[in-house]
Amino acid sequence: MSETCTTTLRLKNLGINTYKDAxxxxxxxxxxxxxEGFEVQTRVRVNFxxxxxxxxxxxxxxxxxxxxxxxxxxxxWSYLQAQEGEDLFIFHHKQxxxxxxxxxKLYGHTLSQNEINEIIKDISKSRFSDINLxxxxxxxxxxxxxxxxxxxxxxxxxxxxxxxxxxxxVVVDKHCVGGLPGNRTTLIVIPIVAAFxxxxxxxxxxxxxxxxxxxxxxxxxxxxxxxxxxxxxVVEKENGCIIWGGTVSxxxxxxxxxxxxxxxxxDSEGQMVASVLSKKIAAGSTNILIDIPLGPTAKVRSxxxxxxVKAHMEAISRKFGIETKVILSDGTQPIxxxxxxxxxxxxxxxxxxxxxxxxxxxxxxxxxxxGEIIEFSPTIQKGEGVKIAxxxxxxxxxxxxxxxxxxxxxxxxEIPKAHHTHEITAVSSGIVSNIDNRRLARLAKLTGAPHVxxxxxxxxxxxxxxxxxxxxxxxxxANSLEQINYALSYYEIESDMIKITEMISR
Amino acid sequence: MSETCTTTLRLKNLGINTYKDAxxxxxxxxxxxxxEGFEVQTRVRVNFxxxxxxxxxxxxxxxxxxxxxxxxxxxxWSYLQAQEGEDLFIFHHKQxxxxxxxxxKLYGHTLSQNEINEIIKDISKSRFSDINLxxxxxxxxxxxxxxxxxxxxxxxxxxxxxxxxxxxxVVVDKHCVGGLPGNRTTLIVIPIVAAFxxxxxxxxxxxxxxxxxxxxxxxxxxxxxxxxxxxxxVVEKENGCIIWGGTVSxxxxxxxxxxxxxxxxxDSEGQMVASVLSKKIAAGSTNILIDIPLGPTAKVRSxxxxxxVKAHMEAISRKFGIETKVILSDGTQPIxxxxxxxxxxxxxxxxxxxxxxxxxxxxxxxxxxxGEIIEFSPTIQKGEGVKIAxxxxxxxxxxxxxxxxxxxxxxxxEIPKAHHTHEITAVSSGIVSNIDNRRLARLAKLTGAPHVxxxxxxxxxxxxxxxxxxxxxxxxxANSLEQINYALSYYEIESDMIKITEMISR
Lengths: 506, 506
What we know:
The structure is a homodimer of 506-residue chains. With 506 residues, chain A is an alpha/beta fold. Chain A folds into three domains: 5-91, Barwin-like endoglucanases; 172-244 and 273-409, Nucleoside phosphorylase/phosphoribosyltransferase catalytic domain (Pyrimidine Nucleoside Phosphorylase, Chain A, domain 2), CATH 3.40.1030; 420-501, Aldehyde Oxidoreductase, domain 3 (Alpha-Beta Complex). In chain A, 41% of the residues lie in helices and 20% in strands. In chain A, the strands form five sheets. A six-stranded mixed beta barrel of chain A has the order 1-6-3-5-4-7. Chain A has a four-stranded antiparallel sheet with strand order 13-16-18-14. Chain A has a three-stranded parallel sheet with strand order 8-11-12, sandwiched between helices. In chain A, a hairpin with a 2-residue loop joins strand 4 (43-48) and strand 5 (51-60). In chain A, helix 4 packs parallel to helix 6 (147-159). At the A-B interface, strand 2, helix 1, strand 5, helix 3 and helix 5 of A face strand 2, helix 1, strand 5, helix 3 and helix 5 of B. Strand 2 (16-17) of chain A pairs antiparallel with strand 5 of chain B, so a sheet runs across the interface. Chains A, B: This is Putative thymidine phosphorylase. Chains A, B: It catalyses: thymidine + phosphate = 2-deoxy-alpha-D-ribose 1-phosphate + thymine. Chains A, B: Keywords: Glycosyltransferase, Transferase.
């Protein structure tokens, strides 16, 4: 691709974090602006020592920069490994062909494998702006990708990252489609399955907009930022691991797309299927269990959407020679008691330790999922899996395995506690008639989760429970009273996040 | 809408121009970030002295700000009329209901008048981020708005701005759907129609991504930034005016949407119809002539798209009691010789002065359009309009009227000339078989247009012309040799923007 190099500007780091949007900051009176009609929103290519990136121009109208200087957003800066005082080369760039395919999708056309490959390649090379990404996602949403296109997308995403190979015929994995706070079954399922003897190398995500991701919870116990070599060492020794997926670069395009989807609270079923499967196939899995929690405030909100996702997942997996089992679960309320890294870790440890006060819903769900995965083993009959899972949990093997995994990952830590707690009580008595996962997640974030590991909340009631007036509903945990107050001021205007309906007979 | 006020930060102006994207810049260690989980991409509401705006958080990771300070992008700064050193109030904000409607549209649902009103209201109050806007536009594109929805959208856009009323029963207007460089008929049509005696209060746009908008060309002759009162004075005295629409705030939402559409080179026919009609109806027009140039590098590229736009325009106009006539014209090449404000002004003046060397295509098209508009007059027979237009032009009345309009708008200036010109010649002889409007526009921008009024280019050939080797094709105009060279380096890699096909018989 021939492009005209126009000029160089001297790099100065302003340190502006725009997430993944690559921005070039220049002055209006710098030579490229004046001469070439570069202006706000122009897309230009920049080069630094052999690395190249397409950026969006924003104009500095103050003395932050001189007319000979340029800056980059932190993402672009680290992508290019830029250095202060060095020259940045600035180029005109030709319109990306892939944007034509995005346009074509928006106009209702079907995309070919090559066209989807081009789009994903450009996204993986950070050539799409946030606006370009939004348009692509909008083109995928609402059933606009057919089965073939979802397969192409899975394939393209798979090829955009690295791919793991294990020396085992059966490599199992699990994934939850998400949206349910506290749903931390992974930390229970992995040790059970690994103790049983199946290989389960699990990569998890950190929270993006939620109060805790599985990787954040695991990090309460043990390091999770392992490279591929260390991951391999853990899995070879213990059959399983629970690490952060960010360091091993499987399907890197996914993170970029998710960051935009979350902003719009959009879930494209095609994008979801391609995203999950590409990550799991890249991780070397042969058998995958997918959990789709279903509920009005979960990620998947209708049975028709759930069934569509299930059908696509199963069909596309078969094309890749992978077995995928999809189960639909109750997504009407959080699982377990805690929301926030340390509080969820506490629930996990209670279940693994067979503590009588452990949340039963978390325990039962983890056993069910572990049982289904164990049945991927060719020697296990249908219905036997859950019994085996029970036995491994109750005999203490699961706890032992979990501690071993933690130790090999780098250490097994105690769960820390918050400095402050605050009880929220019921203002009237009645029946818990609705629990809003999304607003509870937001409340937990206001206490400081996931950045503050000990922050979050405990939910003391479940749907259909009867509560008395003044009975505690939620305990907030935070490291400062200020944070407790932030959360409380949000709770005040959203106090029906746990809805209590008075009973007429009273 | 109750929202929790969280904290205040002291304002510091960093002067970062992000076009219309409202950005709040804060430090990661400022109290709102740490305490409330505000992070990059979080949408928060800010208040300054009674004015309120929803902004997107970006994080400053350097010492540009202290942890007690905040900054705003230049758009947000001027919207709020912010002042350095004063306190900015920062609030949590509830998710906009209108984003739910955008989502619903993306999932294929039909929107009601109320839902579209909510979306347009939120856009007009700058509550949508660029990502939100992209999603909305993506939902409108590719025939996803039905006739009812386009009517609702027109209605909503109409109500978002001010609306003019004139003391005349017939108020005419013209609009060109655009995409054609040099197509500056407006400056010829308005004086002809005004001299005929019809009221034609014309508001025009400045260039957004093109090398010249009608307002930019008019500004070569006379001031165009007139307020409503001055506009009224011009129209009452001369029957017509040609001013920049930006100062009179008709359909303000439109500019915001167009800025995103241009980035993706997207044209939603529904959005286009609503945008044009809402502006014209807001301007008080009773009879509107719409010109749709049709060609592979024009804005409308297919006859089916053109007919769809035509049908919608006519049907929706009728619902508002307005008569709209749509004509399709040749959009396969630029009109006139000049591209760039001063060079287009020169073409216009040549036509108005009945100069023998005036571009005949511009003259003929302007006469045709003027004739069609004159026939909106109830006393004029079909076919008579163009004859009247001819007479008004040739008798010198049009030139006189144009000069009068300029004088009442604030003065009639001479057309300035560029310091440097450079001829581009044909590398081989043959037939001009293709002219690319888009790349010619880009080339003109590289010389400095529209910011440098005298910059731009002249095209010396038309489609199907025979050219000899070394015959001049283009003359570049610029104020510096550097700018000539920028344009030339672009021309070198895109030299088939004027395609010359050798003839086989030779």
